[in-house]
């Protein structure tokens, strides 16, 4: 594996501008490559046996289904990690764009052994992130014409949160809090431990007055109490559509409302039409289907 200094500055700037820290991403890529090549002396034995050392080739990343792509810059960084600056990459498609089956989204040219050594790791990142973006885009499309926005959650794969949340943005979704320190979310267990929704809300507001606080409610009585206490962000947990519509009426713009729990794409439109501001969907990241991309040598 090469060093981060061998990666093109323009690519690193692009990733940084997208909210991805190049140094952290480089460490992730290094860990992924080490799964294939554990140790400095490990080699891709198949490629080393079948391909001359000086062979060079070009390969196309092609979409095998329609959807929204994400992670192409990450995939490009994988190739640079394996081959340094001895690789040329052309990306006719940008992250966040819709593609059709058969579209070429990236072309890489360089040493053939290096292309095939990097192939699977690059595809693992791009296929997964494009799957997140495509799933998010489907929810965004279902909510079109309403004021509701689709949110991700902290139900992300360990170590991939920044990447998965980036892919949600590529699909047109909105990021919820990144971690436990940038926003308070008072859930049912916090409510039980604190002796009620309002005491929990007031405890957080007293200790961290600068932090945004959201509180989960399961019924309209809790909602009324929190509105009276001045809570400005409330999560409606596992409510039916009629109850959520009543929650919107009672709130009357005094707080932002987020629907959560047991939501499906088929139900998305009806939930949005209750008037809630956000719909949070853990499935965008915790159980998404990968997008089908493949790499083929020319």
Report on this structure:
- By secondary structure, this protein is α/β, with parallel strands linked by helices.
- It folds into two domains: 4-130 and 289-297, Aldehyde Oxidoreductase, domain 3, CATH 3.90.1170.20; 141-286, Aldolase class I (TIM Barrel, Alpha-Beta Barrel).
- The protein is 44% helix and 17% strand.
- The protein has helices at 9-17, 22-36, 45-50, 72-83, 112-142, 161-170, 188-194, 197-207, 220-229, 241-251, 268-272, 283-286; strands at 56-63, 67-68, 88-90, 98-99, 104-111, 149-151, 184-186, 213-217, 233-237, 256-260, 278-280, 293-297.
- Helix 2 (22-36) packs across helix 4 (72-83), helix 4 (72-83) runs antiparallel to helix 5 (112-142) and helix 5 packs across helix 6 (161-170).
- It is elongated and about 75 Å long.
- The mean pLDDT is 96.
Protein topology:
Blueprint: H1 9-17, H2 22-36, H3 45-50, E1 56-63, E2 67-68, H4 72-83, E3 88-90, E4 98-99, E5 104-111, H5 112-142, E6 149-151, H6 161-170, E7 184-186, H7 188-194, H8 197-207, E8 213-217, H9 220-229, E9 233-237, H10 241-251, E10 256-260, H11 268-272, E11 278-280, H12 283-286, E12 293-297
Parallel strand pairs: 6-11, 7-8, 8-9, 9-10, 10-11
Antiparallel strand pairs: 1-5, 1-12, 2-4, 3-5
Number of strands: 12
With helices defined by DSSP (H or I, 4 residues minimum), what is the helix count?
Answer: 12
Q: Give the CATH level 1 class of the largest domain.
A: Alpha Beta
When the domains are counted, the total is 2
Residue runs with pLDDT of under 50 for 5 or more positions: none
Q: What separation lies between the terminal Cα atoms?
A: 25 Å
Q: What percent of residues adopt helix (DSSP H or I)?
A: 40-55%
**Structure class:** alpha/beta
Q: What average pLDDT do the residues reach?
A: 96
Strand content: 15-25%
In CATH, the architecture of the largest domain is: Alpha-Beta Barrel
Give the strand order, joined by hyphens, for the main sheet.
6-11-10-9-8-7
The secondary-structure element order is HHHEEHEEEHEHEHHEHEHEHEHE
Q: What is the CA-atom radius of gyration, in angstroms? A: 23 Å
């Amino acid at each position: 594996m090469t060093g981060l200094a061998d990666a093109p500055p323009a690519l690193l700037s692009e990733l940084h501008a997208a909210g991805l820290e190049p140094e952290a991403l480089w460490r992730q890529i290094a860990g992924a490559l080490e799964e294939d090549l554990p140790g400095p002396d490990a080699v891709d034995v198949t490629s080393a046996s079948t391909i001359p050392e000086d062979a060079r080739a070009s390969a196309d990343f092609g979409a095998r289904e329609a959807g929204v792509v994400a992670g192409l810059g990450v995939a490009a960084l994988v190739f640079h990690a394996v081959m340094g600056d001895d690789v040329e990459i052309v990306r006719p498609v940008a992250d966040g764009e819709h593609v059709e089956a058969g579209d070429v989204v990236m072309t890489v040219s360089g040493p053939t052994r290096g292309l095939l050594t990097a192939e699977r790791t690059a595809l693992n990142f791009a296929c997964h992130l494009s799957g997140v973006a495509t799933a998010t885009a489907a929810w965004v499309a279902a909510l079109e014409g309403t004021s509701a926005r689709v949110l991700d959650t902290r139900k992300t794969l360990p170590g991939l949160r920044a990447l998965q949340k980036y892919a949600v943005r590529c699909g047109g979704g909105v990021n919820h809090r990144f971690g436990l320190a940038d926003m308070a979310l008072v859930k049912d267990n916090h409510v039980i431990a604190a002796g009620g929704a309002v005491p929990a809300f007031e405890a957080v507001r007293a200790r961290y007055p600068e932090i945004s606080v959201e509180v989960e409610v399961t019924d309209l009585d809790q909602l009324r109490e929190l509105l009276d206490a001045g809570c400005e962000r409330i999560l409606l947990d596992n409510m039916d559509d009629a109850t959520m519509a009543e929650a919107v009426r009672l709130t009357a713009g005094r707080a932002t409302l987020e629907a959560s729990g047991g939501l499906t794409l088929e139900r998305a439109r009806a939930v949005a039409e209750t008037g809630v501001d956000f719909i949070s969907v853990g499935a965008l990241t915790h159980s998404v289907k990968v997008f089908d991309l493949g790499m083929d040598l020319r």
